[in-house]
Design a protein that fits this description.
Layout (H helix, E strand, L loop, with lengths): L9 H13 L2 H8 L3 H15 L4 E3 L4 E3 L1 H22 L12 E6 L1 H18 L4 E6 L5 H7 L4 E4 L9 E8 L1 E6 L11 H6 L1 E5 L9 H8 L5 E6 L5 H5 L5 E5 H6 L4 E4 L8 E7 L7 H15 L1
Parallel strand pairs: 3-4, 3-5, 8-9, 8-10
Antiparallel strand pairs: 1-2, 5-12, 6-12, 7-10, 7-11
Helix pairs in contact: 1-2, 1-3, 1-4, 2-3, 5-11
């Protein structure tokens, strides 16, 4: 007779997975949608079940014990397998489905890729909800593994090797400036481009060197960067009433074409690719398969 497995509430294992990822009861409770006392009580149950403290107080939050470290990988695999077992063979009917899809991306990618998905969802899956979240590369793998996120949009270079990924499109750059800007009346040449005052988008904030500057350096040229910001979505309000210009991803520039003047960049600037990434546990989930295919269609449109 097969040996009977010890009883364990699956929800406790889900909580343990998030606790080991966060090493912080308050943050883990927030991710799980639980109160801190409730998660603390679950941690006590887990400690009793495993006969180990699992997480001990450290200088910065909590530190996993050796036993807890050994549990991380098999626990993640167990939960992924269980998720696949439940979802296998289940059809996804978007018109009737009630589900929250959570996608992480930069504000620029949300603006150009995820936003068009909203219109598609309104028609194809009207009862589904969409949460558009910011990307945190440090926690992204854990968020996808735990189900806190369904999909991430990012470059192939930034995609962790543990995730599945598919390229959505290749991106180039265009210049934007206010309507009526003197430089918008004719094709932009390199001398004019370098002489104008520029806005640079520095994702981490405060930077004054970007891909355009690296391309200019190969030509022995420099541009004049006057403003550094940390979000592409600040660009229109900055340049609408000034003679500042900005070099931005082409899809974003075309999105602003009715508001700003859009012109070609007068030098070769290497572009980049945009991919969607997801965790192996969600690879066969019918709902997420549908989401990824819909995202692919939107990005290709």
């Amino acid at each position: 007779m097969p040996k009977q497995l010890p009883r364990m509430d699956l929800n406790l294992l889900v909580s343990l997975d998030v606790l080991l990822a966060e090493c912080h009861v308050t943050r883990a409770a927030s991710r799980l949608g639980l109160s801190q006392p409730a998660l603390s009580a679950q941690l006590q149950q887990l400690r009793a079940a495993f006969g180990d403290p699992l997480l001990v107080q450290g200088h910065k939050g909590m530190t996993p014990t050796s036993r807890a470290e050994a549990l991380k990988v098999p626990l993640r695999g167990l939960l992924a397998g269980f998720h696949g077992l439940i979802s296998a063979g289940q059809a996804f009917e978007p018109l009737a489905a009630q589900r929250v899809f959570r996608i992480a991306a930069t504000d620029a990618l949300h603006s150009t890729v995820t936003t068009p998905l909203v219109a598609r969802l309104a028609v194809l899956a009207p009862q589904c909800q969409l949460a558009m979240q910011r990307t945190d590369l440090q926690t992204l793998p854990e968020q996808l593994a735990s189900g806190e996120l369904d999909l991430a949009l990012l470059t192939p270079q930034a995609t962790p090797a543990t995730l599945h990924a598919r390229r959505l499109y290749d991106e180039t750059f265009l210049c934007v400036m206010r309507q009526g800007h003197p430089a918008a009346a004719r094709p932009l040449d390199l001398d004019t481009f370098c002489s104008l005052a520029h806005v640079l988008v520095s994702p981490n904030g405060g930077g004054f060197i970007g891909a355009v500057d690296a391309a200019l350096q190969t030509l022995g040229r420099r541009r004049r960067i006057q403003i550094s910001i940390n979000s592409f979505l600040l660009v229109p309000s900055l340049i609408e009433g000034t003679d500042l210009i900005a070099t931005v991803p082409a899809r974003l520039a075309r999105h602003w074409a009715g508001l700003l003047a859009v012109v070609s960049v007068p030098l070769e600037v290497p572009g980049f690719s945009v991919s969607m990434a997801w965790h192996p546990r969600a690879h066969a989930d019918p709902a997420q398969v549908w989401l990824r295919e819909t995202m692919r269609q939107v990005a290709s449109a």
